[in-house]
Batch of 2 targets.
Target 1
Amino acid sequence: MKIPYVNLSRQNYKYRKNLISIFSKILDSGEYVGGKEVINFEKKISQFCKSKYAVALNSGTDALTLAMHVCGVRRGDEVITTPNSFIASTAAIVHLGAKPVFVDVLDDQNIDPNKIEKVITKKTRCIMPVHLTGRMSDMKSIMKIAKKYKIKVVEDSAQSIGSKLYKKNAGTFGDIGCFSAHPLKNLNAMGDGGYLITNNKTYYKKIKDLSNHGMTNRNRVKNFGYVSRMDNLQAAILNFKLSHLKRIILKRRKNFEIYKKNLSRNIFFPFEKSSEFNTYHTFVIQVKNREKLKKYLFKNKVSTSIHYPIPIHLQPAAKKLGYKKGDFPATENQSKKIITLPIHQDLKKNDIIRICKLVNKFVGN
Ligand SMILES: *Cc1c(COP(=O)(O)O)cnc(C)c1O
């Protein structure tokens, strides 16, 4: 593949020396689960996001689970979210015994705030907007609704570390912001990892305990908990990578500008509004013959991806939720048209121009 969608070994190769010295430092420290690096990461990431507290965890999925748990989401409750996310946001709701209530999306793939009030019931405990592709949902409107109905808000910011809306960071609008450090995310570990941020001290303390078997200390367990801790090794890697994050985001933003300048006007992709600061975890365009374009690019040695080809409400796993084809027209329509082009930080300007030329040629421009 001339232009891979992503190449993680190449991405990490640049840091080979640093990473090997991190591995040996942790090896010798004997601190493997929890430890100084974890404490340090929590401090650094809360500073980066401008939030009071952070908890380092094993995954973005468990961050969502623990966040909703402390927000009081229990069996029989309802959580409002979108059907065009990665499966994990809905799965976390289901595993708490709650019911995901889907709301369709806008052109920019994020939740349509105008459709939220209609689905609020007495059982609605929480709204979970998903900041897809590194672009934030309309949090001003969502928080207005949440305050009016006294509903908690858990932001699925898994794809949006460093993204901003009105200069305010992703994850700091709602009660809790949840992030993933999966290798494919912009701030990535070398294995699973996740974290969450909050300004609420009670939530912070509860989540800290819950993530570690519910233990308040070595011998006392207040609530039955989870095993959701971040490994010290992953924390050490993230501490190192965090020092490169601003540059990575800047590079991805530059890559978007190259796309914007060179892609034909006939191709739809949402522009960045002046209120937004997008981090381009992915760059998604919408075209008519998506499958054909994917094959055409592949033949020309450009690999692409699709996020996501099957909306969650149409997944076999979601059958029991009772939704059907046609329930969310915008999501379903997008799922047939979306294709994710490479935008990672190791791309050269000419790579992007080459992709643009191929896509433009395909659509006939
Ligand atoms: C990656 C992702 C998650 C899950 O994160 P993990 O760390 O893989 O558990 C949740 N929601 C969205 C939108 C994601 O992109």
Target 2
Amino acid sequence: MKMPFITKEQAEEIAGKYPTPFHIYDEKGIRDNMRRVREAFAWNPGFREYFAVKAEPNPAIMQVLMDEGAGFDCSSLTELMLAHAVGDGREEIMFSSNETPAEEYVYADRIGAVINLDDFTHIKYLNNALPKLPETLSLRYNPGGVFTLSNGIMDNPGDAKYGMTKEQLIEGYRLLREQGVKRFGVHAFLASNTVTNEYYPQLAGELFDLAVEVKEKAGVALSFINLSGGVGIPYQPDQEGNDILAIGAGVKKKFEEILVPAGLSDVAIYAEMGRFMTGPYGALVTRAIHEKHIYKEYIGVDACAVNLMRPAMYGAYHHVTVLGKENAPADHVYDVVGSLCENNDKFAIDRKLPQVETGDLIYIHDTGAHGFSMGYSYNGKLKSAELLLHEDGSVEQIRRAETPMDYFSTFDSLPVYKKLADIAAHL
Ligand SMILES: *Cc1c(COP(=O)(O)O)cnc(C)c1O
């Protein structure tokens, strides 16, 4: 059974101070998980997890992860700025972007981020963007075809816009070495949200074989191999989660089979996990404010897809708990819906739940990654607050809720902005 990390009593107390809806994050869960990740890869002295900032771009959460030894993986100017500000000069940053504007490469280079080039043509583009190439560069690989694991999980790299072919990659290392680059890495992201201990080891095996080939054909010994993201979490209550210690051991086995005999035992393993690092340690807490009985039974809540887009965007499953009714029989069937004028604004469809009454607090699980951050502002809806539950049980607001004036703030050169400010002041 999936259990919330806060009780109904805690949630009511928090809601008394910070009105619903809000996202709340469990600091202890994040720290303990990051420690397990480091333990899983402790056999590799160069190992580093670069937290994928897009999963949860909040400085307080980033700080917790950095305290535990994480670097940051960024893919845009604002993510780079955040990582640099949080790190205060001590940060380690990977810039795994795509379709990148020249100014972003310039800024990434200026703050010492490692640039991971998505395409062969970006070598020329980078040469034009920077006065001098950095000493370290990474290239992103796409093997094409279909990526399959024995449990059937599959993704389709051949259809993905990311990365370059093997021939381009090998030619790229040759070219960059001629142009004075000294340290090289490779990166690949071949399947998303894999709930199996097999994904990283299989990916690592492919990249280790590639590293041996790169050494033979381009004469370049890679310094790091970046397994990127894709390690998933069990959104469904009957799924068994990944065992990161088993994943680390699986990668180690491939390392010893392939890299060590090839004389490449100094290679550092990097990861860029996002979902696995924060996903289970965040929740969206919202209140049931309406019930509706037509052709189906509906519960209307005060959050909407603006606060959590994954169900609307990909039909993603998020488990729902009615707080205080954790042990009550799930003998009702509801659609739990938000307020957007979009019929896909449904957090749950035909979901078996205990009877929901207006006023109940609804806890939507696993929103700690790609939850708040994926939000948008359709229908003029405002983003919620984000709260951090500390290990001592205290709660800190780490992002305030938006106000109407935040929504209007980019109109500021228009006379109507003043009227809006006046209206907002007298609401
Ligand atoms: C999204 C992304 C990640 C993180 O992926 P998760 O599935 O959240 O672990 C890492 N690296 C890159 C380049 C990404 O685009």
